[in-house]
Model the fold of this input.
Amino acid sequence: KNQVEQSPQSLIILEGKNCTLQCNYTVSPFSNLRWYKQDTGRGPVSLTIMTFSENTKSNGRYTATLDADTKQSSLHITASQLSDSASYICVVSAGSGGYNKLIFGAGTRLAVHP
Amino acid sequence: ETGVTQTPRHLVMGMTNKKSLKCEQHLGHNAMYWYKQSAKKPLELMFVYNFKEQTENNSVPSRFSPECPNSSHLFLHLHTLQPEDSALYLCASSRTEHEQYFGPGTRLTVT
Done:
């Protein structure tokens, strides 16, 4: 069964600290993996997308890694800011793409406190 | 702004009401989607339209009725909903296999 598991469910950190969010997946065949950021009451916004051959992808203070062998991905946030408070969703695309083969994780809710 | 707009942003309706959610994309994409997002659950894909044709209906109850008059507009017609249908309804669009761009969502409360 195709699944995406994210951990932790929620996380509280102090402003300026770093944190790492985890995503484990059992999706086959794997196409790509995306991390989205979703602010409260808003739609998800894409942060990074990685294909099978990519190990790491950065977007400002966000760095995503992918280990296709262990089927794990992480999202590292550096020097956190209050505006980083949001849900972070890992999404894995199965097969050769297509419109209905996205497997969503339940998200990690991050709260950054001053 | 991602180029995908949704109206209304908030909706409260009784179980006997009929209402519609609207989505519009200004990105020139050919595919549009409806998702349901309940608290602490992954997004659930409801419907997919590609070039105005419905290509996916993930066993959604008939009280949800989608309509896609053109590639830029997508509607979700609602009638005789249940309280458990209360959720955030997200619209998204994409160009073929590229990443999906999401709208801000409609927060629906069924009383």
Chain A touches chain B at residues 4, 9, 34, 36, 41-46, 49, 89, 96-100, 102, 104-107 (CB under 8 Å). Chain A has a mean pLDDT of 92.
